[in-house]
UniProtKB/TrEMBL annotation:
Residues 1-66 are annotated as: Disordered. The keyword Phosphoprotein does not apply. The keyword Hydrolase applies. It comes from the Eukaryota. Residues 29-43 have a biased composition (Basic residues). PANTHER family: AAA+ ATPASE DOMAIN-CONTAINING PROTEIN, FAMILY ATPASE, PUTATIVE-RELATED. It comes from Aaosphaeria arxii CBS 175.79. Residues 446-573 form the AAA+ ATPase domain. Keywords: Hydrolase. Residues 44-55 have a biased composition (Basic and acidic residues). The lineage of its organism: Eukaryota, Fungi, Dikarya, Ascomycota, Pezizomycotina. This is P-loop containing nucleoside triphosphate hydrolase protein. Residues 10-21 have a biased composition (Polar residues). Pfam families: AAA, DUF7025.
Amino acid sequence: MAPHADDSVESQVDTRPQTPTKPEANGKQKSKGTGKGKGKGKKKAEQHTKERIQRLDQIYSKKKRENYFVPTPKSKANPETANHASHVVLKVRRIICDKGFPTGTEIDIKSEILTHALSEIYDGVEGTKLNEYPPEISPELLFHAGPGLIKRVEAEQAKETPNQTAIEEIGIALQYIAEDFESTTNNILSLSQHDEITFDLLWTLFPPNTPIYSRDNLLKDDQVFKLQQGTYECRNGSKFFAIKARCISHDGENLGWVDHELEIADFVGARKVQNLPYFPLKYHSDPKALSSELIERGKKFLDMTKATYMEYNGPAIAENQEVYLNNQYKRLVLHATGRIMLDPTTCLQQNTSTELLWPKVERELTVDRISESDFIFCNHCAGGFSFRQKKWCLFSINRMAPVVWNTNAFSKLVMDKQKRDLIHTLVRSHKNSAETFDDIVSGKGKGLVGLLSGNPGVGKTLTAEVIAEATKRPLYMLSAGELGTYTGDVERSLDQVLEITRQWGCVLLIDEADVFLQERDGLDLERNALVSIFLRRLEYFQGVLIMTTNRKRTIDAAFDSRIHFKLHYPDLSVASRASIWKNCLENAPAAAKQAKLNEQEITQLAEVQLNGRQIKNAVACAVSIALEEKKALTVQDIRVILDMVVDADTDEKIGSGK
């Protein structure tokens, strides 16, 4: 399969050097002709070309501490004309080290026309020396410029009055490419028939600005980089091809181009280009379709450089999750599910280490300055926070989905309707009231704090979840134990949690907050300090906080003035349990609820004294059985589960109604 040409990138066309046919002064092609005159003319043209390519050895003199030049041996230059600078288009300097060995080659461009053409071809490429005096280029860069130079000659030849000087001087460069890279070109032609390459010819695949494709990342996502340069290097005796490339990313402070250093290890013989860890995008099996996908992904990435709430299911790279393997530290990948907040700015602010969002932006961009063709270079992942895993991570853009809010969730909450509507109104209106109402001391009293008390499984946690869902706010849920046990840890964790919930407009749920709410005494100084810290932070908190407790009678008196609403949840009645059974069964997968339970069966189930969490778990287990056995859910499936969870001290039987 031959490489796929991409007309949008000049370096993506066929890189085989071509020497255009030189026209006569009037722009017409030479007639083929025959005879001795033709041979003499050809030799004369070749000699003229060689005279305009000056080949010198640049040798450093230790004694004089300066460079001097001598003609390169076997250069076939005419000694009478080799030093006529006015005729020279290319000055090829072979660099000789002080030990007498050649170490490289540089080319000085003596033609303004050729310099201008090369500057256009390499516009935006950093590290070139075309703006220096004299303009300079490496042989490899001149080789890569071949297709662009051919286009310019062809465009000039097509004009009614061609610029013969331009055609001739650019033709000199093409002649140099054809002669000096003849064996390289022949090898590439042979290898390209099978989409193969050898290590020593890797450089020919990577002209500057080439889009480079790879899936060599921890999330195994498609990523395209823009090549800056590729060089052969050696480390600890091992050769490798070093690629400097960039992509568009956000480092928590700025959006722009970030630099990456990529490597292709030395290999023996020919290898399929597509089997390299990094290769030009044009060699992908379907570069056009992939580019379209990456453009759409790039648009999503740019939208997610500000706080964006999303659903996620897939691998993620977490902060400070590393393992030492094969003499190096490697990041671990975890599986993240649930809702996330993409926010690289807050991600950087909340982490002392910048490694998660590394590397730093080297060249800033604004969204309006990014062309659609550059969207393919946007990063495949973005920094954010997993609410379920409680970790800052890098998330794959491809595995995100918009949040689907359950706006009917509030109507399913089993509690007094008047209380339910009151809580809904308070939370929904909090944003506006927080912006208009202020305390005597600026910044105080702008939060909304609620306390829900009752036995486990009566709906306290569910209330907070439903409030967040109904008001379309993120829910940040954690237990008091997750904040730490020592005063310093709690203070630091609490500050972080309160700040990000304020920034993101979250509903913050602190489950089982008894350690903060319990009355202080004169003996437990550590816990007294925790309560004092919590009270102080609560004073200036500007978000929505809901706390739950199982022991409402032991609450410290200082909390009363800081709590805006309190709700006590009694144990569930039979009617409440029946409603919960119905809600849970309605949420069962369609494949498991083909046969609905009748009212009598639900009433029988509701008579068993279970809390809401136990009912939900029982339905989940019964659904799993039904799905595994590929049948509709029946009351018998639920009875089997309940027989295992009902208190063993009771002799209660389920299903008979007795």
